[in-house]
């Protein structure tokens, strides 16, 4: 069976439309995934900071312990190295987040600083603020707190992921 020119054109258009839709869907998923990852990093930032602060104390303790003092049946040199690598990655991530947040703060206009302050109170300050407390200290409604957080997080992907975060048409 041979297809006519008109049938081939319809099939071609349909395939092209389908592929364009799939490409847009993947780009949207990629964007959503980046926002999700940034939110995860922010939500776990305080814990990572605490983890890194304790790491300094543990590192001093580990380095002052001799091999003979270790219970070889439960701890190996490889496990110690693995723990050190994990903690080094955590420290690197904390430093990365701090640098990106500082870059965001430095780039904020006066209006955007409101969003930054809300983001800082929600995720970065050592004191844990509730949405209600943030609303009160910033003199805004609770729904505005959520809107400011979302707006600030929307600005972060380019700082965190560079050119890959830009959605070119």
Report the sheet with the most strands, covering strand number, pairing sense and barrel closure.
none
Strand content: under 5%
Radius of gyration, in angstroms, nearest whole number: 24 Å
Query: Overall pLDDT, averaged?
Result: 84
Structural class: mainly alpha
Q: What percentage of residues falls in helices of 4 or more residues?
A: over 70%
- Residue runs with pLDDT of under 50 for 5 or more positions: none
Roughly how many Å apart are the termini?
A: 39 Å
Query: How many helical elements?
Result: 6
Shape annotation? flat
- Reading the helices and strands in chain order gives HHHHHH
The count of strands amounts to 0
Short précis:
This protein is mostly helical. The chain contains six helices and no strands. Helix 4 crosses helix 6 and helix 5 packs across helix 6.
Can you tell me about this structure?
It is a single chain. By secondary structure, the protein is mostly helical. It is 79% helix and 0% strand. It is built from six helices and no strands. Helix 2 (45-64) runs antiparallel to helix 3 (77-107) and helix 4 (110-124) packs antiparallel against helix 5. The longest helix is centred in the first third of the chain and has 39 residues, at 5-43.
